Predict the structure.
Amino acid sequence: MTIPISWYLLLSAFLFACGVMGFLIKRNIITIFMSIELMLNGVNLSFIAFATRFGTLDGHIFVFFVMVVAAAEAAVGLAIIISVYRTRETLNVDRVNLLKL
Amino acid sequence: MHIFLFLLFGLLCAGGAINLLIQRKPINSALSLIVVMGSLALIYLLLGAEFVAVVQVIIYAGAIMVLFIFVIMLLNAGEEEHTKGSKVAKIIGIPGLITGFIIGVSVLLQHGPQEKRIHIGELYGSASDVGMMLFTKYLLAFELTSVLVLIAIMGAVVLARRSHSS
Amino acid sequence: MSVLTFLIVAVIKIAITLGVLLTVVAYTVWLERKVVGHMQNRWGPSRVGPFGLLQPLADGIKFLLKEDLTPPYVEKHIYLIAPVIALVMALTSIALIPIGPVVHLFGISTPIQITGVVGATGQPGDIDAGLLIVLGITSLGVYGIALAGWSSNSKYSLLGSLRASAQMISYEVSLGLSLVGVLLMSSTLSLRGIVDAQLGTWFGFIPQWFLFRGQFIAFFIYLMAAFAETNRVPFDLPEAETELVAGYHTEYSAMKFAMFFMAEYANMVTVACIASVMFLGGWSGPPMPFLPAAVQAFLPLIWFLLRVFFFLFLYIWIRGTLPRFRYDQLMAFGWKFLFPLALANVIVTAFFVAIRA
Amino acid sequence: MPTATDYIRILPEIVLSVWGMAIMFVESLLPEDRSRKDLGIFAAFGAVAAIAATVYQAQPQFAGFGFNHVLRVDHFSIFFHLVVLLVTLATILMSLDYLPLQKIDFGEYYALVILGAVGMCLMSSAVELVLIFIALEISSIASYILSGFRRSAAVSTESALKYFLLGSFATGFFLYGIALLYGATGSTNIFDIALILGKANHVEALAYLAVALIFTGLAFKVACAPFQIWTPDVYEGAPSPVVALMSTAPKAATFAVLIRIVFEAASPNLFWVIWVAAALSMSVGNVGALLQSNVKRMLAYSSIAHAGYLMVAFASASNRDLAISSAMFYSAAYAAMNLGAFAVVTQMAGSGEGYLQMDDYSGLGKRSPVLAAVFTFFLLSLIGIPITGGFFAKFYIFSTALRTRLIWLTLIGLVNSGVGSYYYLRLIVRMYMYEPRAEIPVPPVRLGMGLAIAISLIATLWLGVLPNAVLHYTQGMPSAIAVR
């Protein structure tokens, strides 16, 4: 049995859309950040699927770098979240509102 | 077999993603994200990307998400409050997202590549292949990640450490 | 090999491995109590059966029959699933470890390794990234502990699991780096390939283990990091009973507690297996031509188990000897000593490998 | 194997990395109560050394692709290297006395600025999307951290949080765009992509979608409407020298990436998307700025507006050579004048960044005539008055637009410039016509700050009075980047 590549691409688009949706509707900072990770995961699936299509490894390499960047972002992001929590004692993004939007 | 595995893990993935949105407690969202990442690793295996699949488990599930859970535990993040939220996000964002998603899906379906089909066991992304490419064609990018990680480490330390006594 | 035989063989291998592993786990507990007892001038278990040999059985029955308490304010689902995660991750990783060469039984040849298969050429095949998968699975084990502490809704548990996750993440780095030297020298990630790279001898009697080929510093780093990864003395801060009652499993009782217990000992076995494969040449050993053929067939297995036993004994020995670290000492040791040392080892090894190439 | 020439092609980046690491190393050796000013001066020398390396690199024999075609040294990259590095230098200089004043005197600050510049520099020379992505992330992550550097101040951490969340969100779009572009062409190298897309008879819808997503991601990063929402908040909360940095250098670098992608790789024509983005940015920025009473917020909105003006150049893409050179000139001029404006804001803000309201600038002309004059000069340049860099920048942009027959867009731009001049002038009027509020002290300008202001002043003036040299250099560029 074989599966067309576009199935993988649709799954990837779905994950990406879920991530964007989470970014828009979630209110907890950590969950919002997790939604961003979900977006990146969706993108990674696209890269791997396309890499399989072309039979090249560039997509794999890109995913590898995305992971490294995600790890770096996670470290910095969580540190920022901790420092926000220290000054504001809340994790709700709407209560982090000293600056008017 | 292949199609069954794809459907199984694909549904797990999609279910995890939806569960992330529905759950109110951050820890549950984190767990569903781990489910998504785990099933993605298995989907990568279906696509033949062996090395990436393993690295996905080690880095995403084994390091990044542990960090998330660690912070959730540390800050004792409880149930999400219900607040109004940004109106701009809801008025512009969600319709924009939906239209974007529809456009994206239609483009992927119409013009997306469909010709190539994948056979199970067609492994080609082995660690040595990826490593070879990483240290030849993408050498500079690889070296550059060290600067990136250095910045991240330094930043995490600077932001999260307690103030100096002075 | 047809798919059916493959499945049957796989199931048999899994059953045997699981049986052996659980027995080893049970008797490691017995051994520990016995050895530590003797070290402290006591007898250790001695009532149930000769030398207390049936003690693990009695303990098992006790765990099964005890009342299974679930404290009222726990996060129920996570609380229930945490010990399962810990145990499953601990038991799964053993599947990738090559325990012996190919055996021929009833006309079927198969390597003694759950994930191994015999390829078309009759050579044993192994997963390319075997070691990475083992590392991946072990790195998932931290979830069991972290979630147990969080879901118990008790501050001792939470502190214990915070300590445990920080400790495990920190030492995982040194653990991984200590293996890189071996990987550089064997230039493969397949565990079977790594064992094959150490099969020869010098002068007919010194085995060409990586331990003797310049990786002894890596070996010691690995040992220390492995102690920390398995939360054993002197790194057993997560369950330091004088400070934290019992750490992350304070609120667990009966079988759920037993799962954590088994997970810890299963992890010890896995870590010992990896150490044997990476540094001590796996199942290799001197040929014993004077033994009967039936025994010879089991020799590799025996060599392997001997090594594992050595490591398990070492664990127990150290537990009977050393006091516990302080938490800041533990972190400083991991990051300021082991980590740079492991990095230096990688650099030096890479240098020598490059010179030779 | 990389050759020696390959290494020369990343010489500025190497210098910066080594310098950054040296700063980190020395920082850990210094006693805790010692001032980090010397470290900052050391960092400034690092920026100067990197400038020297760039000048050395600019020799013609080093031009070309390096490291397996992942980067390319040409006029274009040299130009943006210089912009980024000068901004970095000025930022370090203006931070020397700022950090002790805010009690955040840590050496890591300088290391982050220097290492962040590595990313910004590489963004302008990279032609491989992998490398661009990592370089972009280096510069962004460094900016996230820097904007939360006053970590005991709630506004600063909040600003870091918002910047971080929206920045990573944008990264997601950027990446998805790259993934689809890779899917449409099978390559991640800009020149290969250009070749493949150029050969195809019709551009696949996939490629359109991909470029649109990439554009969305980058528009977030350069604060271009409709993705500008984060800008005022982030700029208000972040430490002022950091705002000076991040509103100029990473922005210029991101524009460099956009130029590479829009003019080089992307045959998909996004004319209307860019047109709308440009018109919207100019209008939103200028109208938003009118309503502000906080100077930092006002400058934030003004930076949105300026991103809009720059987008006009992108809309003139059919007039390729002129568009590229005017976009480059504009980003340099904008960097110079905005840097100067924020330097003055930094100087005025005082301890704890207490004095940021327009009201606090009343009577500055009497209290500190020199500072007021300098600030007036930068504001006039932001308006686009002759003899300032801002004038020629706007002039080239709009004349390019007119030659491309973008009548409406030019009209919108000119109207917006008129609206814009109102709020800049309002500040100037406040400085000279209003009575000073006696209780606000004007701290003396220290050497570091003076040098920083001097750099931006000279740059703005030079671009305004003698634009030809720079313009000539930028006009050499289009042919340079077109060489395959």
The first helix of chain C runs from residue 3 to 39. Strands of chain C lie at 100-105, 108-112, 117-118, 124-125, 201-202, 206-207. The longest strand of chain C covers residues 100-105.
